[in-house]
Amino acid sequence: MSATFVGMPAFPTAAREALGNAQQRRNLRHATHTIRDKRARVVAEVDDWEELRVAGAAIKDHVLTHLDTYLEQLEESLTRAGATVHWASDAAEANRIVVDLVRATGSQEVVKVKSMATQEIELNEALEAAGIDAWETDLAELIVQLGHDRPSHILVPAIHRNRAEIREIFLREMGAVGEPAPAGLTSEPRELAEAARTHLREKFLRAKVAISGANFAVAETGTLVVVESEGNGRMCLTLPETLISVVGIEKVLPTVADLEVMLQLLPRSSTGERMNPYTSMWTGVTPGDGPQDVHVVLLDNGRTSALADDLDRQALRCIRCSACLNVCPVYERVGGHAYGSVYPGPIGAVLNPLIRGTSSAVDKSLPYASSLCGACFDACPVRIQIPDLLVRLRTRVVDEKRGGLPSGEEIAMKGMAWVLGDADRLERAQKGSELGGRLLRRRTSLGRLPGPLSAWTDARDAPTPPEETFRTWWKRERG
């Protein structure tokens, strides 16, 4: 199994280490700029791209505002179509449900479609602890799993690896868990893909249980949607007898018609393609065709905590396209591992503290893992105000550190507001400053100020107050 993010250091420490890896920086720059350039070209083809972004944001906001209603409708539609619906409030409950479902089949292994939700809850580790092998079938996820590594990108989890490194991983690891890589394997993409295809084929044909996520879940019909580029998802969704889908509750869409907008936004923003090579949709059970035992686990795991606030709720619009990662100057240099979660980059710096809270050192540091340049908002297909969310989370971290006590800055600002809020108080304060200016007229600077003001004067001179204010000068000259 791949390593987990448990015990990761805070972002500044992890980022400093990542910056020292020159090979990784080169890999990241090449990959992110390639995807970024492809995205720019296909987005430029769409005359109404901004209108699509607005429509996508509106659809997600409508769903999130009425999430209880649409989740109930989704459950009814899924049940009517022959699926069994399970509700999981947190990761532990979701893992318990999935492990019990797999055990009930008598199977000791599962094949998996790439899923951020299952990575979020660390399902692979829970299955391993239960004696169940979980095989990743997405090429990038397979590379991460065989390399005992961690994902570093939402769309391309092995973006930090180059072809030579992937070849070495395949040659070293494949034979230990299945069909080995050919002895003469080169680093050509075609040969690497063929080695992965041969390795996975026996697992597809043997597996009785598959586990997936979903990009979208349509409340109207109970239809789940997975988009992918390799065809591995379709193998998992059709061959096994049992299919278990772990779906975040924010993935709901009201109607099939809403897919028209999302399936234009997602591929262009994620892979820089006009449409995904494979878009799979399934609705419950179809007798004699595909899995006959279908389960859907609807996962909360901290999502409802973000619903109450209008700004925090925006983070749940995310359709996991990774566009914000590919334009982020911070992510490009440090990569995904530094963020300490399966959700890296700008959206990860928002999602992780919202879902997990800010009690850990990692989550406290993530809101500061950004230059606030705004490129993430410009790239986001559903217009999430990521910079605003990061500033809000920074405020939350600072407030929690103070334990409810006001900061010196806050006290000073409130004092200034009180003085500036009344003309008489302001005039008296100005007269006091004139007195101070006359007493200190022989000094050009106040020097280093005492107490909490010392940090401010360490980097700048504090000028002496003027001997005469503008108000006094005006009265004298203009009467």
UniProtKB/TrEMBL annotation:
PROSITE patterns: 4FE4S_FER_1, 4FE4S_FER_2
Keyword line: 4Fe-4S, Electron transport, Iron, Iron-sulfur, Metal-binding, Repeat, Transport
Domain called 4Fe-4S ferredoxin-type: residue spans: 307-330
Compositionally biased tracts (Basic and acidic residues): 468-479
Organism domain of life: Bacteria
Spans annotated as Disordered: 447-479
Listed InterPro entries: 4Fe4S_Fe-S-bd, 4Fe4S_Fe_S_CS, FTHF_cligase-like_sf, Helical_ferredxn, LUD_dom, LutB/LldF, LutB_C, NagB/RpiA_transferase-like
Annotated GO biological process: lactate metabolic process
GO molecular-function term, one example from the UniProt record: 4 iron, 4 sulfur cluster binding
PANTHER family: LACTATE UTILIZATION PROTEIN B
UniProt name for this protein: L-lactate dehydrogenase complex protein LldF
Species in which this protein is naturally found: Nocardioides terrae
